[in-house]
Amino acid sequence: MLCHAASQMGIRIVILDPLPGCPASSVCDEHVIGSFNDEDTVREFAKRCGVLTVEIEHVDVTTLEKLEKQGVDCEPNASTIMIIQDKYRQKKHFSRCEIPLPDFMEVDTLRSIEEAGEKFGYPLMVKSKRLAYDGRGNAVAKNKEELPSVVASLGGFERGLYVERWTPFVKELSVIVARSRDNSTVCYPVVETVHKENICHVVEAPADVSNKIKKLATSVAEKAIKSLEGAGVFAVELFLTEDDQVLLNEVAPRPHNSGHHTIESCYTSQYEQHIRAILGLPLGDPSMKAPAAIMYNILGEDEGEAGFFLAHQLISRALTIPGTSVHWYAKPEMRKQRKMGHITIVGPSKISVKSRLDNLLQRNSSDPKEALVLLL
């Protein structure tokens, strides 16, 4: 999707990816096959680039730091990637910047996590510091007795763990923030994300919250991004609590699933915006050009060919629904709960796009929280 946006602006994209048939290989200008974590590979790759950017934060940040010292233009900066790729370090950074967060603490022994349970109560959210996404690396302990098994499920304390106080939120929100090289920022409208088993299934734009909450969420998101360094698009995931607090959950230093709808629903997609930001071009208009949009992730419902068949059934139904756009990622392997694509529906009202999603999923409910499965 980043390559598509760049091609429309006459900008060449060279990608580094270890998979020969990766989704972007057919739409980029050049594909270098190699690891994100191999210093020699990254250094040689950087020689081909006027600006080096990332679409995944799990990269060799030490090499990026060395490249920056040698004059390579990395956007966002290596210091930002270093903060974001370790979620505990991320929490400490935003805490120092007085960004509202759920309470958290590092744990490295059974006794320390038991003390955390005594301090924060149960249920207790236990998280890996690194390589945690799409529900991986997170686990919930309902009581003290579950702590050993939860720790083991995350790879043990040697993996690097921390805990968070359980946040009884009423909605999960997200704000896409773009910052250019001159540090100017623009924010996209606040959206609501609906998760199931820690994986985003639905994004509603704009979020159905008061103007006061929208302003607060945007303020928290913008403050968080201004505390980091470098240009690009950032996603700020937030919790809205029962007493109308907005707490930062985590930040992604790249275009994000919660901003996919912008391709159809906004004047400037998050992908075009990322290109504009890292190159120092004027930032585009982030406002919505459609009154309402809803994005539905196409997740694998079965393994292999059976999963592809079910996904194609869903796509066939989507093509009959007005205002619907299908994005298929061309990932070569189908696995259960793997994101394989997304479907965006735009329309004149939130009611209309929810109704169209119900038709797509062959459900009667207008509540996307109840419409989170691909119907066989």
List the helices and strands and how they pair.
Elements: H1 2-8, E1 14-17, E2 30-33, H2 39-46, H3 61-69, H4 78-85, H5 87-96, E3 104-107, H6 110-120, E4 124-128, E5 138-141, H7 147-153, E6 161-165, E7 169-179, E8 185-187, E9 191-196, E10 199-205, H8 211-226, E11 232-241, E12 246-252, H9 262-265, H10 270-279, E13 292-299, H11 304-318, E14 324-328, E15 339-347, H12 350-361
Parallel strand pairs: 1-2
Antiparallel strand pairs: 3-6, 4-5, 4-6, 7-8, 7-9, 7-11, 9-10, 10-13, 11-12, 13-15, 14-15
Helix pairs in contact: 1-10, 3-4, 4-5
How would you describe this protein?
This is phosphoribosylaminoimidazole carboxylase. The protein is α+β, with helices and mostly antiparallel strands and about 375 residues long. The protein folds into three domains: about 80 residues, Rossmann fold; about 60 residues, Dna Ligase, domain 1; about 210 residues, 2-Layer Sandwich (D-amino Acid Aminotransferase, Chain A, domain 1), CATH 3.30.470. Strand 11 and strand 12 form a beta hairpin. The longest helix has 16 residues. The radius of gyration is 21 Å and the shape is globular.
